[in-house]
Specification:
Cytochrome Bc1 Complex, Chain D, domain 2; 0% strand; 9 helices; binds heme C; 2 domains
């Protein structure tokens, strides 16, 4: 007795199984986590784990279809038909269309994906960073209103006020003792300046600091790789007076002196 059985061709059933595995990983398991944890948020399967499972599923499917010559022949038949485009009769147009699609669209998609992967990103170029670019003219001649002409700090509580402002605003990055080791600083690739290091503020005049504090990393010229610097721009946050006070405290906390400005001719 002839058996009438509706059979999905092996190629399509294999493809369908893979799609099912994907749906299970992407939605099935996460949905299950909601039931297990009783939470209303699901826990997605990590991408690397998903990739691993999918590769295993694909390898498994390929092993299965190659267990016998018949299976392999059945599996590859639709592929061969499409690639040869030699179907007769009412399917021939479809087969030719599908072949054109495969030969054109698939390489384009694969090429596009590869391009997106390897295309250089807009990250920082590997040029050496110029740490102290030239100060813009507008800042060059500024002097600290809280210092006497001989460099000593004027009477009053300015240093204390500056220290409070420093600890409040700058400590998270530049550290309690100005060592560049604040808790937030560890998160940056270019570490916050260590003001105790003789190569930072000790080599700079105070006017230079005003510029750097007001304009921050984004105010640096290109040769100083502004895209690397997390130094905020403080001009909207702190008044000029506050900045001058912070600068006093910055030097005091770090235990260094500002460079004396050259006498202007
Ligand atoms: C979000 C972290 C962060 C905070 C907050 C921060 N800075 Fe910075 N700062 C940096 C980083 C990173 C650098 C090094 C890169 C650069 O020079 O722009 C830097 C550099 C500097 C420099 C330049 C030093 C040199 O030798 O060129 C000065 C001056 C400075 N900061 C002062 C301050 C002051 C004052 C405050 C508080 C008002 C402050 N910073 C707050 C991250 C920070």
């Amino acid at each position: 007795m002839a058996q009438v059985r509706l059979r999905v061709p092996l190629f399509w059933s294999t493809l369908l199984s893979l799609v099912l595995v994907y749906l299970l990983l992407a939605y099935g398991f996460p949905a299950l986590t909601m039931v297990v944890t009783g939470s209303d948020r699901w826990i997605p399967v990590p991408r690397t784990l998903m990739a691993m499972f999918m590769i295993l599923a694909i390898v498994g499917a390929l092993v299965y279809v190659s267990t016998s010559d018949e299976k392999l022949a059945e599996f590859t038949r639709p592929l061969q038909t499409v690639l040869r485009g030699d179907l007769e009769g009412r399917w021939s147009l479809w087969a030719r269309g599908a072949r054109l699609l495969c030969l054109l669209v698939v390489p384009l998609i694969v090429g596009g994906l590869v391009y997106l992967q390897v295309r250089p990103s807009v990250g920082s170029p590997t040029a050496l960073r110029i740490q102290h670019p030239t100060i813009p003219g507008a800042f060059e001649r500024l002097t600290n209103p809280f210092r006497n002409p001989d460099g000593t700090i004027k009477e009053g509580k300015v240093l204390e006020e500056g220290a409070v402002l420093y600890q409040k605003n700058c400590r998270p990055c530049h550290g309690t003792t100005a060592g560049g080791d604040g808790p937030m600083g560890w998160g940056f690739r270019l570490k916050p300046a260590n003001f105790r290091d003789p190569g930072t503020i000790a080599t700079l005049v105070e006017a230079y600091l005003v510029w750097r504090i007001k304009e921050g990393g984004i105010g640096l010229p290109p040769e100083a790789s502004p895209w690397d610097s997390a130094m905020p721009s403080w001009k909207g946050e702190l008044s000029d007076e506050e900045i001058w006070k912070i600068i006093l405290a910055e030097y005091d906390t770090a235990g260094v002196e500002p460079r004396k400005p050259e006498k202007s001719p």
